[in-house]
Amino acid sequence: MLTSIQKQNNKTSYRFHPIVVVTYLLLLGITSIFFTLSIAYLYTTYNTHFSSFKLPLLFHANSVIILVSSYSMHQTRLANLRDDERAYSIGLLVTMLLGIAFAAFQIVAWSELFNSGISMQSNVAGAYLYVISGLHFLHIIAGIIVLSIFWLKAKERQDNPVKELLFDTDPVAKLKVKCLALYWHFVDGLWLYLYAFFLLNYFLVSSNN
Question: What's the mean pLDDT in 100-123?
Answer without folding.
Answer: 90
